[in-house]
User: Which sequence fits this backbone?
């Protein structure tokens, strides 16, 4: 494990915890896309099927369980919690799941390393993770007032992806057999989706003004 | 192995 990978995982972990804590303490999910959260729950479910078949490390297993548990908790809060669900703005969060899920599934069936159930599901999870943030980004653009925590959540998610790219570059040079182009392409696409958001995030930070995305 | 195929990542 290199420093970029660890920093990436920790950023990812903090992003999820920030979101869960925000929802839990202020009992509101305003500005959060349920669609994105459901897609992440699907990403983790399909990617971590190997929990049942392979043991990699304690770190790996624990982190996988945390990501699964937190993503399903967030979905539960937004859908079922009697106070939190009232703050969910259904009319703004209009992105259709199948516009994202179907193309990813078709792509995973066509482009993969091995045609086995586990491998296709793993590949599907990579493609899906790359675009799962889209409903959240659309929602951010529609919400004129982005609260600090939501902005930080999206920023941390983007930072996690950027750190993973550094991790791959590092591994590419230090581990000669480490080649995984599907991961790379999906990961680069995913990081690019944040480019626009990053630009406005840093602008607002530099000028010390509230984050707002242009319409 | 898991490391070679990147499956050791999250």
Assistant:
């Amino acid at each position: 494990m290199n420093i970029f990978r660890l920093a990436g995982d920790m950023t990812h972990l903090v992003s999820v915890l920030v979101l869960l804590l925000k929802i839990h303490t202020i009992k509101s999910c305003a500005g959060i896309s349920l669609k994105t959260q459901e897609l992440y729950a699907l990403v983790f479910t399909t990617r971590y099927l190997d929990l049942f078949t392979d043991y990699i490390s304690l770190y790996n297993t624990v982190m996988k369980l945390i990501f699964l548990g937190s993503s399903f908790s967030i979905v539960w809060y937004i859908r079922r919690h009697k106070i939190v669900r009232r703050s969910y703005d259904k009319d703004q969060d209009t992105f259709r799941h199948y516009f994202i899920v179907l193309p990813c599934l078709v792509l995973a069936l066509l482009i993969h390393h091995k045609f086995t159930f586990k491998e296709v599901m793993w590949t599907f999870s990579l493609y899906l993770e790359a675009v799962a943030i889209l409903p959240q980004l659309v929602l951010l653009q529609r919400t004129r007032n982005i609260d600090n925590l939501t902005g930080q959540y999206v920023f941390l998610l983007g930072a996690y992806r950027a750190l993973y790219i550094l991790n791959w570059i590092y591994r590419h040079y230090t581990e000669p057999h480490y080649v995984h182009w599907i991961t790379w392409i999906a990961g680069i696409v995913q990081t690019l989706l944040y480019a626009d958001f990053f630009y406005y995030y840093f602008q607002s930070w530099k000028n010390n003004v509230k984050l707002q995305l242009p319409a | 192995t898991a490391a070679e195929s990147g499956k050791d990542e999250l």
About this structure: The longest helix of chain A spans residues 148-174. The interface with chain B takes residues 5, 9, 12, 50, 54, 56-57, 60, 63-64, 67, 113, 122, 164, 167, 175, 177-178, 180, 183 of chain A (CB under 8 Å).
